[in-house]
């Protein structure tokens, strides 16, 4: 695994260096002509191929699938490494690997607990908790902020200047990587519909967009979906005050003018410029590297707008330089920061919407007489939650499990990643439409495929009725899923089968908020899990608080009943620990059983996860619903057509399933 990480860094470094070297060797000059453009492009291509093969060998040896690329981006290798180093009794290396993984995956509760354990182990020091993938410019900037807060302005100046140099170097490297092949999902039709010039235009528009977005990439910290606001301008903002404290007014004026390139006319900084000019008796100029950077950024924007209009693709410019206000504090801390490296907390973001809580209604009829209410929201210590039993029968559970064994595929729904949530389990899934297709082809009994369709509709009706919804609840996604413990990987396991999350917003445990913004499925309104079995170890479903750590449980419920006996009858397990004297409940978990269904609203009021499956296989029908008909599940609409055709027997009329293509739907 360490070799894989080294190889990944070497391949990246080689691509960057070769790209920059070949760009210098074969520049575009002023004598541009129709032949000059392809001449330079072809020579650069030949140069890069030769350079890469010289440095790391044949390029085909280093091509990997998108799932591997994503795993390295998510720092999955460090999850494996911390486990391996722990088993090798090398806690210092394990701590570094765990810390590196946690920086990019702060929602991973178990890794956070591992880090706390490492802190108490002999031989592990504070300096062992390092981010092995830390970006130099972000590390230098954070250290500079720390020195500034301590009043060490001279040291802060050196680190801020170093951070700027590293930032512009990282920008060049990011842009160099954009020159490698781009992915054009859904663009295979270009070769048939457009001219050569339009195809070339499309490619360079994609490359230009990648380069333009480097400003966002460089300002985004590991584990964050949004960039740090006002990131680059703040370097100059800090510097102008640091230089002021060191009585270096020439540099202070220059940095102030540079900041105004990003925020023209900002009142507080304009006042500073007037002050510096008056003290110096002359004007100054902004830094050329920043002025050139912004000129290029604006030119790219103009070209992207032309390219998007030509290719008929929507393009929206990001808000890269958002200002966060002036300075009111007596300590003259730079604008847009509170003096700490978390200078723009996510809780202060103005461009996102906090997930709105659903109107609290529940207790409607359960539609089917066999269905039994086990717990409502109050018993589950939350809002918009319900636990039901006997939603389906034992026979139906067995039939659906046999169906799952025949139709589910590893990594279905997760781009083929067999273990998308934990390396210790195999994940398999199948959609309703795929199941019906298997039934039509005779690979599974059509009755079983139809049962999956009918059972999911039964669950939808129950949820819609129980929560007293005034409008139709539509399917957003329907998935038959199984999680299987991987033999030999369960010893000393302490991760989760599915990390704590919310279904329609981005859980931010640090801010104790859930942000309803992409890439979350913001249109999902309700969720349900219908379990097919209970003959496995682990795999309990848990609700937590917004901090993604505290599992919700009613202490009053325990006090009223005196013992946990009643809770056990409800398949809820309470665990207790002594903290500061009195006992308090620490954990509640719902054990899956055949026919049991848990339903809940999909927002931040209901963070949830799944405990590790340590033995056997856990199967369920996972369902997500929306109240917005515009976001109905496409495959469900197609499945509706298949069922309608089956009911009229026209599906057997020859030539396969009569399903509309996606673009028609």
Automatic annotation (TrEMBL):
Residue ranges of every copy of the Fe2OG dioxygenase domain listed in the record: 478-627
Gene Ontology MF: a single term: iron ion binding
Cofactor: L-ascorbate; Fe cation
InterPro entries: Leprecan_dom (IPR056585), Oxoglu/Fe-dep_dioxygenase_dom (IPR005123), P3H (IPR039575), Pro_4_hyd_alph (IPR006620), Pro_4_hyd_alph_FE2OG_OXY (IPR044862), TPR-like_helical_dom_sf (IPR011990)
Alphabetically ordered keywords of this record: Dioxygenase, Endoplasmic reticulum, Glycoprotein, Iron, Metal-binding, Oxidoreductase, Repeat, Signal, TPR repeat, Vitamin C
Pfam families: 2OG-FeII_Oxy_3, TPR_leprecan
One GO BP annotation of this record: collagen metabolic process
Name of the protein in question: procollagen-proline 3-dioxygenase
């Amino acid at each position: 695994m360490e070799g894989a990480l080294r190889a990944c860094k070497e391949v990246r470094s080689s691509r960057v260096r070769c790209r920059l070297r070949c760009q210098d060797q074969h520049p575009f000059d002023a004598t541009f002509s129709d032949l000059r453009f392809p001449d330079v492009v072809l020579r650069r291509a030949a140069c890069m191929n030769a350079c890469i093969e010289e440095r790391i060998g044949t390029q085909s040896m280093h091509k990997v699938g998108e799932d591997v690329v994503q795993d390295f981006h998510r720092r999955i290798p460090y999850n494996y490494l911390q486990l391996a180093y722990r088993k090798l009794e090398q806690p210092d290396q394990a701590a570094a690997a765990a810390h590196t993984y946690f920086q990019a995956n702060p929602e991973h509760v178990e890794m956070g607990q591992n880090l706390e354990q490492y802190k108490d182990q002999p031989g592990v020091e504070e300096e062992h908790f390092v981010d092995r993938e830390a970006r130099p410019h972000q590390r230098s900037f954070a250290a500079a902020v720390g020195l500034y807060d301590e009043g060490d302005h001279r040291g802060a100046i050196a680190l801020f200047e170093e951070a700027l140099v590293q930032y512009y170097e990282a920008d060049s490297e990011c842009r160099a990587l954009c020159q490698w092949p781009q992915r054009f999902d859904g663009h295979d039709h270009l070769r048939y519909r457009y001219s050569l010039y339009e195809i070339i235009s499309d490619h360079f528009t994609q490359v230009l967009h990648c380069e333009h977005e480097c400003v966002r990439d460089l300002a985004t910290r590991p584990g964050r979906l949004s960039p740090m606001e006002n990131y680059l301008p703040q370097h100059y903002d800090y510097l102008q005050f640091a230089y002021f404290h060191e009585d270096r007014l020439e540099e202070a004026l220059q940095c102030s003018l540079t900041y105004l390139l990003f925020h023209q006319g900002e009142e507080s900084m304009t006042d500073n410029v007037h002050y510096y000019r008056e003290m110096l008796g002359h004007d100054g100029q902004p830094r050329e590297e920043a002025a050139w950077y912004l000129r290029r950024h604006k030119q790219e924007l103009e070209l992207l707008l032309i390219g998007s209009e030509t290719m008929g693709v929507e393009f929206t410019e990001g808000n890269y330089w958002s200002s966060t206000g002036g300075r009111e504090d007596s300590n003259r801390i730079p604008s847009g920061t509170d003096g700490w490296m978390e200078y723009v907390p996510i809780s202060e973001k103005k461009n996102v919407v906090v997930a709105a809580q659903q109107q609290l209604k529940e207790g409607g009829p359960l539609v089917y007489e066999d269905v039994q209410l086990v717990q409502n929201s109050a018993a589950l210590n939350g809002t918009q939650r319900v636990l039901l039993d006997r939603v389906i029968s034992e026979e139906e559970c067995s039939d659906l499990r046999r169906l799952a064994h025949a139709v589910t595929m590893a990594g279905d729904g997760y781009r083929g990643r067999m273990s998308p949530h934990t390396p210790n389990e195999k994940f398999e899934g199948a959609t309703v439409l795929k199941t019906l297709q298997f039934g039509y082809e005779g690979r599974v009994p059509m009755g079983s495929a139809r049962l999956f369709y009918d059972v999911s509709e039964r669950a939808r009706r129950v949820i819609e009725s129980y929560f007293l919804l005034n409008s139709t609840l539509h399917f957003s996604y329907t998935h038959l899923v199984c999680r299987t413990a991987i033999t030999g990987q369960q010893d000393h396991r302490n991760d989760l089968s599915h990390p704590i999350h919310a279904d329609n917003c981005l859980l931010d445990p640090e801010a104790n908020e859930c942000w309803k913004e992409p890439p979350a499925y913001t249109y999902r309104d309700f969720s349900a899990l219908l379990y097919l079995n209970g003959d496995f170890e682990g795999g309990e479903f848990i609700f937590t608080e917004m901090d993604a750590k505290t599992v919700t449980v009613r202490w009053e419920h325990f006090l009223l009943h005196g013992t946990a006996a009643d809770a056990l009858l409800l398949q809820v397990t309470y665990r207790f620990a002594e903290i500061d004297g009195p006992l308090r409940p620490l954990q509640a978990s719902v054990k899956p059983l055949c026919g049991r269904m848990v339903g809940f609203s999909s927002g931040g009021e209901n963070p949830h996860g799944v405990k590790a499956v340590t033995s056997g296989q856990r199967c369920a029908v996972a369902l997500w619903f929306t109240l917005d008909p515009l976001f109905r599940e496409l495959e469900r609409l197609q499945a509706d057509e298949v069922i309608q055709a089956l009911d009229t027997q026209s599906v057997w009329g020859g030539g396969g399933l009569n399903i509309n293509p996606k673009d028609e739907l």
